[in-house]
Amino acid sequence: MYFSIRYYAGSHARMIVPKAYEKEFQSVDSLSFGKKYCTVRCLTHRENDNCILISSAAKEKLQLPDHRMAMCHITADKARLTVPFGVFTAGFQIEGQLLGPRTKYFEGFSTTGQELGYQAVFFGCQHLSTLPAYISGYVYDRQVWRKIESPLPEVVYNRITNRKTENHPKVHQALRTLKEKSRLFNPGFFNKATILKYVMESNETDHLLPPTIFNPSKQMLGDMLQKNAVYIKPTHGSRGEGLMRVKQNEDGSLDVHESDARHPHRFQSIHSYFQAYFPQGSSGYLVQPKIDLLEIDGKPIDFRVHSNKDEKGTWKITLIGVRIGNENQPTTHHIHGGTIKILEEIFSHVRIRQIKQRLTDTALTVSKEIDQHFDEQLGELGLDIAIDKDEGLWLFEVNSKPGFFLFDHPALAEQMNDYFSYSYRYGQHLMDRDTD
């Protein structure tokens, strides 16, 4: 049963339910939210609306968010509130796992929510056709996925899978609707150029970027290649897609190694390379010099750092993983042959403390800087940070919807429950903020 929820000032733990539901609630003497519980006195009111009134004393004991609707489950003398929490995504499967390879992560996400008093409702743009009355969607409950009908959750977490899907007109329209009718966080994928410019323009973070040129000309690329190999990246790419490592040989030829290729391609000149890859110009690309990264067994490493906002809207560092590249690949991303380790598997205790502190300080500074440009719409970030052989620290990329691949490492998988809790905690912040 879904009810609207209102709070009133009261020093005793009480809930006041509609008279029409007196029979269902007549034995109730306790109320729970997640793992929190309190004894309550249950009264009735004669208003015609489908509303439960909860005293401020009960709200405080249960640490309830300032939500406006909830589902109430009754078992004998116990009532339990769960708040719908929307997850907007795509890729629903008719057969097999409901959400493909992501299903195991979203099952963990749902379980975490249940422990905190939330019911994660997964839905896509195809499930919004029945608004404004309700949406359809899927919930994971007692190890089974079920299709349900639900009011539109007050908070919606955007987990659209990729840029192509996010740019579909129907998804665009759905996102506009969600922004108007709920509190949507994680507005969309980043444009690398925009984010890097934010970082470059700040005195707090400008030193973190390698020299970066947007929309490079042949002359600019040639000047950089005389000094070192370079990386060329699309500003709308993700997961290492479209990345190229370019090296100039003594005879002027170029070896170009793409992220999805086993071996480099050779071009006789910069001109022939540009003709092949950028016949219309290099708009939408950037170039940076190759950094001599720390290595393990001859393989380059960098770090994936996750930052999340908590129930106060404050950035916290929630995960740190080490990515070890394949020596034959230009990127450390796991999709292209990279592997995941934890700091403890590679470094000494003293070194771990040093690296962890540097990564934490840097990721928090960058997260706060970027957040200033998004009016609290961001709830999480994934930052790719590297340390070079001279101990210089570099920011390579900031991701608005970081993947869950770090959880493929057993030690990091143990942190999954705590990590997922931050999405719900930040959702609570958004609900509480708008009622202040």
TrEMBL record:
It holds the Pfam family ATPgrasp_YheCD. This is YheC/D like ATP-grasp. It comes from Thalassobacillus cyri.
